[in-house]
C-alpha cells in the first residue's frame, strides 16, 4: 500500500496553496498536501505549528484564507461540517455523561433521523467493532479511560464518515494503554478501509500509527514521508531532531565525489566519510547527523583512528532495559550519544562511568544535512 509512489494516483484529500491567517498571524503558510484514500496520515509537530488548524479546515470548522481543499475531487468551500463526509473525534472524548454507551453511539444517528432499526443495527456493529458489547448499558463514569476512548471512536464511526479526523486521540491515556490502543486503532482503520487523519505532537504515536507523516513547523510542512523514511532520511536538522534521538555535529565539506562525501569536523580530530552524494559544495558548512544506535562503542582503539572515530569519556549511562544509552563527552566538550543493546553489554567487560572509549561508525551510517 503506497499510492503516494504512483504518479497516476489521485489524491483523496488535496490541500492546494492553503494559507490560514488569524488577523496578522499566519497559522498555515501556503501549504500543499496530498492524502490518499485508505491512508492513515499523521500531522506531527510542536504546539502551535498549525496542525490542528489544518485539520479543522478539512472538517469545516475553519475556512482557509487562501487556497482550495478538495475531498474525493469535490471542492469543500462553503460546505458546512455536517454535510462533509468527515467526522472528528476529540481528545476530550466529549461523551454525554448522562447517556449510556448505546445512547452515546446512537446520538448522531438520531439527530440525522435514521430509521430506528438502522440505528440499532449500526450501534450493534460499532459495539462489536470496538469490543464493547458487554458494556452497552454502562455510563461513561463506570468505564476506564481506554473504554471511554473506544466509545468515542464508535460514536464518531457510527455515521460512517469517509474520513475520520483524530485530534490527539490517545493523549489522555497512560503509556501502556496508549500502546495497546494504537494497535486497535490501526486494526479498525484497516478493517473499515477508511482514511484516518491524526493530529499529534507525539512522534512515537505518529510512527506507530501512520502510513505517512507530515512533520510541520510554523505553518509549513518540512517533510512528508513514511515513518521509516522520516527516521532514516530526515531532510533537515529540524526533522532529524524532532523524530527520535540523533547526534548532530558541525562540519565542513572537504572533498566530494559521486557516492562519497568527506567532511572535516572542527576540533574533533577525525575526518568523517559518508557514502552519499554531497548535497553541498567543498568549503560549505554542513551538519553531520547520526543516530545513536549507529555508533559503535568500544574500550579498544579501532584500527583506523583518523576517519569516523571519536574518542571521549563516558559521562552518563541511562539503562533502558533492552538498551543502554551512553553519553560520551568528547575532548571539545560536545556530548555524543550512543546506544548499545544490553545483550552485547554483558558479553564484553561492561563499559562504565568515566571509561575512556572510542566511538566508530561505518561510512553508510550517517547523513549530511545542509539546513
Ligand atoms: P497544539 O498542539 O498546541 O494544538 P497546533 O500545532 O495544533 O498546536 P494550532 O491549534 O493549529 O496549532 O494553532 C496554530 C497557531 O494559530 C497557534 O499559534 C494558535 O495560537 C493560532 N490560532 C489557532 N486558532 C486561532 C484563533 N481562532 N484565533 C487566533 N489564533 C489562533
TrEMBL record:
InterPro entries named among the record's database cross-references: AAA+_ATPase, ABC_SmlMolc_Importer, ABC_transporter-like_ATP-bd, ABC_transporter-like_CS, Mo/tungstate-bd_C_term_dom, P-loop_NTPase, PotA-like, PotA_ATP-bd
Record-level Gene Ontology MF annotations: ABC-type putrescine transporter activity; ATP binding; ATP hydrolysis activity
Gene3D superfamilies, sorted: 2.40.50.100, P-loop containing nucleotide triphosphate hydrolases
This protein's UniProt keywords: ATP-binding, Cell inner membrane, Cell membrane, Hydrolase, Membrane, Nucleotide-binding, Translocase, Transport
Reactions catalysed: ATP + H2O + polyamine-[polyamine-binding protein]Side 1 = ADP + phosphate + polyamineSide 2 + [polyamine-binding protein]Side 1
Location of the ABC transporter domain: 13-243
Listed EC numbers: 7.6.2.11
This protein's record includes keyword Magnesium: no
Pfam families found in the cross-reference section: ABC_tran (PF00005), TOBE_2 (PF08402)
Domain of life from the UniProt record: Bacteria
Function: Part of the ABC transporter complex PotABCD involved in spermidine/putrescine import. Responsible for energy coupling to the transport system.
Family assignment from sequence similarity: Belongs to the ABC transporter superfamily. Spermidine/putrescine importer (TC 3.A.1.11.1) family.
Protein name: Spermidine/putrescine import ATP-binding protein PotA
Originating organism: Hartmannibacter diazotrophicus
Amino acid at each position: 500500500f503506497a499510492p503516494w509512489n504512483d504518479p497516476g494516483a489521485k489524491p483523496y484529500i488535496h490541500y492546494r496553496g492553503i494559507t490560514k491567517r488569524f488577523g496578522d498571524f499566519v497559522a498555515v503558510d501556503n501549504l500543499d498536501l496530498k492524502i490518499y484514500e485508505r491512508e492513515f496520515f499523521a500531522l506531527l509537530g510542536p504546539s502551535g505549528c498549525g496542525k490542528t488548524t489544518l485539520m479543522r479546515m478539512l472538517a469545516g470548522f475553519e475556512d482557509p484564507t487562501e487556497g482550495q481543499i478538495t475531498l474525493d475531487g469535490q471542492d469543500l468551500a462553503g460546505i458546512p461540517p455536517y454535510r462533509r463526509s468527515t467526522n472528528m473525534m476529540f481528545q476530550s472524548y466529549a461523551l454525554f455523561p448522562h447517556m449510556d454507551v448505546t445512547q452515546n453511539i446512537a446520538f448522531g444517528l438520531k439527530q440525522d433521523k435514521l430509521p430506528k432499526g438502522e440505528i440499532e443495527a449500526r450501534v450493534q456493529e460499532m459495539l462489536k467493532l470496538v469490543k464493547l458489547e458487554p458494556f452497552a448499558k454502562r455510563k461513561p463514569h463506570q468505564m476506564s479511560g481506554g473504554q471511554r476512548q473506544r466509545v468515542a471512536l464508535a460514536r464518531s464511526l457510527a455515521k460512517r464518515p469517509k474520513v475520520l479526523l483524530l485530534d490527539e486521540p490517545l493523549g489522555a491515556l497512560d503509556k501502556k494503554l496508549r500502546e495497546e490502543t494504537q494497535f486497535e486503532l490501526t486494526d479498525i482503520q484497516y478493517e473499515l478501509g477508511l482514511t484516518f487523519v491524526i493530529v499529534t505532537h507525539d512522534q512515537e504515536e505518529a510512527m506507530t500509527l501512520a502510513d505517512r507523516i507530515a512533520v510541520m513547523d510554523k505553518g509549513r510542512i518540512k517533510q512528508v514521508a513514511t515513518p521509516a523514511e522520516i527516521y532514516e532520511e530526515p531532510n533537515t536538522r529540524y526533522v532529524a531532531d524532532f523524530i527520535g534521538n540523533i547526534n548532530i555535529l558541525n562540519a565542513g565539506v572537504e572533498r566530494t565525489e559521486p557516492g562519497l562525501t568527506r567532511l572535516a569536523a572542527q576540533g574533533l580530530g577525525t575526518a568523517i566519510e559518508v557514502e552519499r552524494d554531497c548535497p553541498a559544495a567543498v568549503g560549505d558548512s554542513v551538519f553531520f547527523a547520526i543516530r545513536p544506535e549507529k555508533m559503535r562503542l568500544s574500550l579498544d582503539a579501532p584500527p583506523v583512528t583518523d576517519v569516523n572515530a571519536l574518542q571521549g569519556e563516558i559521562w552518563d549511562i541511562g539503562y533502558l532495559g533492552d538498551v543502554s544509552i551512553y553519553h560520551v563527552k568528547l575532548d571539545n566538550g560536545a556530548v555524543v550519544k550512543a546506544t548499545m543493546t544490553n545483550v552485547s553489554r554483558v558479553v564484553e567487560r561492561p563499559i562504565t562511568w568515566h571509561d575512556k572509549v572510542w566511538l566508530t561508525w561505518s561510512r553508510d551510517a550517517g547523513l549530511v544535512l545542509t539546513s
